[in-house]
Specification:
Elements lengths: L11 H15 L5 E7 L7 H11 L10 E7 L4 E6 L1 H6 L2 H16 L3 H19 L14 E3 L2
Parallel strand pairs: 1-2, 1-4
Antiparallel strand pairs: 2-3
Helix pairs in contact: 1-5, 4-5
Amino acid sequence: MFSFFKNHFLSKKEIARILECIRENESYTSGEIRIYIEKHCSESEASIKAKAIFHQLKMYNTQNRNAVLIYIAYKDKVFCLHGDKAIFEKIDAAFWQNQSAALANYFSKKENVGGIIHCIQQLGNQLKTHFPSQGEQKNELPDDIIFGK
C-alpha cells in the first residue's frame, strides 16, 4: 500500500526539519508522532482513511497507547489527526478542533511546513504533559514520513 512517489509537497530539507521536530518532541514523552502524506482523499473519507492507516502502521502497538497520526492528502487539501485510545482519554475535543483549525489556517496560507511543525509541537506539548518520559527513552515507532499514492 505504501509507495515513495516523487514528492512535490515537501522538499528534502523540509522533510529533515519535520523529522527533527518529531524527534525533539518525542524526546520529552513516551508518546509517538507519525505523518502520512498522500495526494488524494475526499474530505468525507479522511477520518476513515486516517484510522485505517493508523491500524495498518500498527500504531496501536505502543505500550501506553499514545501514538498520534497526522494524515494529509495535499492535493485535496484534506487532513486528519488520529490519536490512540489513551490520548483521547486525556486530551479534550477542543484541543483537536483548535489544532485542526490552526493546520487549516497554515495550509490556506501555503505554509505547509510551518503548519506541520506547529501541529507536532502542540501535540508534543500535550504528550509531554500527559505522558512524560520515564527513564530510558524507547522509540516504539519509526520517525519517518510515509508517502502514499
